[in-house]
Amino acid sequence: MQGMTKEILFSREAIHQRISELAGEIDNRYQDRELVVIGVLKGAFIFMADLIRSMQIPCVVDFVRVASYGTASESTGTITLAKDIEMDIRGRDVLIVEDIVDTGLTLTFLVDAMRKREPSSLAVCAFLDKRLRRKVSFEADYVGFSMDDGFVVGYGLDYGEKARFLPDVYIVTNL
């Protein structure tokens, strides 16, 4: 992170407000039902924790890890399932929680893999959506924030495993 120039893009206050709104939307959709929330490691864990604490519906949690980044900032385009979920999701309502929709390749891969397990419903909630980076058509059902392009860190988003701990989201220049 030395030599990195960063500027706040989304403040912790704006993040907290948006998560409350997302939780309300999710609560409305799944009221009176238990939701399986699947977090995509590692980037989504902070967002997911804050999101489920803001929700009012019962949920159970599992995690998956999907690898697609060869270097710290560029996707390789090759997706591998590094850690699978542990619970059976057949016939259950499932929400995948991801930190960022970038090329769309990773979430397309993951959604296809989860659909094969026959959940009752399947939705995606992404903290951040970078629309200009799409290589395949993909739309998350719930989006925290959208941005055109740029490299961001903080609030779970990292650069070479660093900067996840920052409570705000920063746009980084001068990598």
Q: Which structural class should the secondary elements be placed in?
A: alpha/beta
Count the E strands. Answer: 9
| Percent of sequence in beta strands | 35-45%
Strand order of the largest sheet: 4-3-2-5-6-7
Helix content: 10-25%
Q: Whole-Å distance between the termini? A: 8 Å
Structure explained in plain terms:
The structure is a single chain. The mean pLDDT is 92. The strands form two sheets. Strands 4-3-2-5-6-7 form a six-stranded mixed sheet, sandwiched between helices. It has 175 residues and is of the alpha/beta class. The protein is built from three helices and nine strands, in the order βαβαβββαββββ.
Describe the structure in brief:
The chain has three helices and nine strands, in the order βαβαβββαββββ. By secondary structure, it is α/β, with parallel strands linked by helices. Helix 3 links the parallel strand 5 and strand 6.
What attributes does this structure have?
single chain, 175 residues, alpha/beta, six-stranded mixed β-sheet, 3 helices, 9 strands, globular
What is the secondary structure topology, with strand pairs?
Blueprint: E1 5-10, H1 12-29, E2 35-41, H2 45-54, E3 59-69, E4 75-83, E5 93-101, H3 105-115, E6 121-130, E7 142-147, E8 151-153, E9 169-173
Parallel strand pairs: 2-3, 2-5, 5-6, 6-7
Antiparallel strand pairs: 1-9, 3-4, 8-9
